[in-house]
Design goal:
alpha+beta, conserved putative lor/sdh protein from methanococcus maripaludis s2 fold, Elongation Factor Tu (Ef-tu), domain 3, OB fold (Dihydrolipoamide Acetyltransferase, E2P), six-stranded antiparallel β-barrel, 4 helices, 32% strand
Length: 398
């Protein structure tokens, strides 16, 4: 009985060992179990591209020309010839002040001019006769001189009358107020029938006009940026403080800085209160929409470096290891290496890598959740073009 029980136990142990031995080779054939499976990842080499670093600043749009339309003569406002907020061209009629008093003044001045011309003709005739009579000693020299003086006085009266006619004609023209520039007119500040004042220093503001195309954007870099630009200038690098350098702008509801202009003004001193230097960019603003409006806030950027060849990887490929940004790179043995990196600007989904990788490195761009440093992977290589975007400008370093 004991022998039979021992035999059964030995048989059961042998059967278990045989079953375990039969299963073990099958697991080995599958790569050593679940923990030893080789994950597949997508890798790509960095994209090499010429890029520029940009500095971004808040800006304020302002019109190049702003005009207060005022009356130059006194009178009652007779008519208005524009709609509030409309675009006008230089020379368009805006207001008419009652011209009748000024037309009458012009008529009076012209009549006085005619009288002065008649008096001059008479004085000229008298002076001519005096010269002939003086030769025959029929009149005294004193009388001849008196007639010549009357002729010169009549001639001066003509000049005075002509000036009065010109002044009256100008005042009559001033009753028709036209747009001095192209642009958008504001609302009318005064309505028909009201008396307007044309006295200097007290003239009535009738409306305002601002120009629309082109338009200015003012912005103020901080002192550290100014020092950086000056250093670049000393090194001979074309920087944001150079005149006619390209700058770009976007409004609050835009992305990608779609508006392109040039830097055309740099102030002559740093503001001691704010530690900033005022710069200005000029931007085209064609119609009919005129998207850029005076007074809008914007984001404007200027080049912070010259063009250089950068290495770019998809921004989604960048991971964080504690407080450090890293990339995972697959080496020649298909082993994963971790590379600390230094970030550059973001370029439409592609991130410039300033330091940490080489052009020949194969960077993991997909499957990051299944990799760890020192692990073996099954890399699926793709071309850089499959992950690059057609970008031409960067949005500033983060």
């Amino acid at each position: 009985m004991q022998f039979t029980l021992r035999a059964l136990l030995i048989g059961a142990v042998a059967a278990y060992c045989a079953l375990f031995s039969a299963c073990k080779p099958q697991a080995a054939n599958k790569g050593g179990g679940w923990g030893a499976m080789t994950p597949a990842v997508t890798v790509s080499q960095p994209v090499q591209r010429e890029v520029i670093d940009w500095d971004e600043y808040p800006g304020r749009l302002e019109a190049i020309e702003t005009v207060e339309v005022r009356s130059r003569v006194n009178g009652y406002l007779q008519s208005i010839h524009f709609k509030d907020g409309a675009e006008v061209k230089k020379g368009d009629l805006l207001f008419v002040i009652d011209p009748r008093p000024y037309q009458a003044e012009l008529d009076r001045a012209q009549a006085e001019l005619a009288q002065a011309q008649t008096r001059f003709e008479l004085a000229s005739n008298e002076a001519g006769r005096a010269e002939r009579l003086l030769k025959t000693k029929s009149i005294s020299e004193e009388e001849a001189d008196s007639r010549n003086e009357a002729k010169r006085a009549a001639e001066a009266s003509i000049l005075s009358a002509k000036a009065m006619v010109e002044t009256a004609r100008l005042n009559l023209e001033y009753t028709h107020i036209t747009a001095p520039i192209d642009g958008r007119v504001s609302r009318k500040m005064i309505t028909e029938g009201n008396l307007v004042n044309g006295l200097q220093g007290q003239s009535t503001v009738l409306t305002t006009i601002v120009s629309l195309n082109p338009i200015y954007c003012y912005f103020e870099p901080d002192e550290n940026s100014v020092l950086k630009y000056q250093k670049l200038a000393r090194e001979g690098t074309k920087s944001g403080l150079s005149m006619n350098i390209a700058c770009e702008l976007q409004l609050a509801n835009e992305t990608g800085f779609p508006h392109h202009g040039v830097l055309d003004f740099v102030d002559n001193r740093v503001d001691a209160n704010t530690g900033t230097l005022r710069l200005r960019g000029a931007f085209p603003n064609p119609g009919p929409d005129h998207v850029l409006q005076p007074g809008f806030f914007s984001r404007v950027r200027v080049p912070a470096t010259a063009k250089y060849n950068g290495l770019l990887v998809p921004d989604v490929a960048i991971s964080t290891d504690q407080a450090q940004k890293v990339l995972y790179v697959v080496n020649d043995q298909n082993m994963v290496e971790i590379r600390p990196i230094k970030l550059g600007p973001l370029l439409n989904g592609m991130r410039v890598i300033r330091q940490g990788i080489q052009p020949k490195d194969w960077v993991v761009v997909n499957g990051l959740m299944s990799v760890r440093p020192g692990a073996k992977v099954n890399p699926q290589k793709t071309t850089p073009a499959e992950h690059a975007t057609n970008a031409v400008s960067s949005s500033g370093a983060n």
